[in-house]
Predict the structure of Putative transposase.
Amino acid sequence: MAARAEDLLPIEYFHVVFTLPAEIARIAYWNKKAVYGLLFRASAQAVTTIAADPKRLGARVGMTSVLHTWGSALTHHPHVHMIVPGGGLSPRGNRWVACKPGFFLHVRVLSRLFRRLFVEGLLALHRAGDLAFFGDLTGLSKPQVFAAYLAPMRKTEWVVYAKPPFGGPEAVLAYLSRYTHWVAISNSRLISADANTVAFRWKDYRIKSDDRQSVMRLATPEFIRRFLIHVLPDGFHRIRHYGLLASATRKANIAKARALLGAELVKNEDPPTAEIIPLTLREPCPDCGGQMRIIETFRRGQKPQTRAPPRQAAA
């Protein structure tokens, strides 16, 4: 976390999620290393390609991707959480290109490119003999059958969505510190367990209300089976960095971004005057009638820090 804190920039960060369709997840079940690796590559390539388009952002961006393979009920649900700084370096690397406040890239455009890149990558894995099939999927080992299986997937909408932007660099660090090292279920969700049954809390998204918490009871062998689905292959990294944040060039790119962002702040500042007059607010506080004072200034589009209201002095 200390290393990640050094990488954070004083800008808005965005949270994008890429999810595999259930039909693809079935293939990933037996081919975790190959398909999860492709999920990382295709999602990162989709973001870097769309962001580099001059009609979109026109910048080289970076991202941190985190793989999760579970749903709330411990089902197999592979998806990638991506944390992306709100901007990037210009093609020549001589200026910082910021995205619009509160908006990164169109998720539908990302979804369609991600779909194409992933399907093409999956076909390449099949041609290379890197996929294995079992049970009712055994027939997919034949190229023609596999191509027919994937054909409908080229026309359906794949789930890519953007969550609300993080509140700031501190929120990104808090997210990374708790979210990246989660496993499929934590002790806090367990209610009871014995040789026959395990009961745990889960979130039922079919319930259309704020309170979606339900209790699921599984036979103990079934609970163990579901938990073991999410054990990754030996040596597989579930946190990866791409683009500007790729390990080989991260330090140099972060330093350049900081310098350009600092120059941008200086450029946007008002020219100094002979006498610096402190900022004041002439209107009294509408609540207590006292003199108001400025506690923070921030640029347009920048998130102010969350602060509690000042405590009124005792009479």
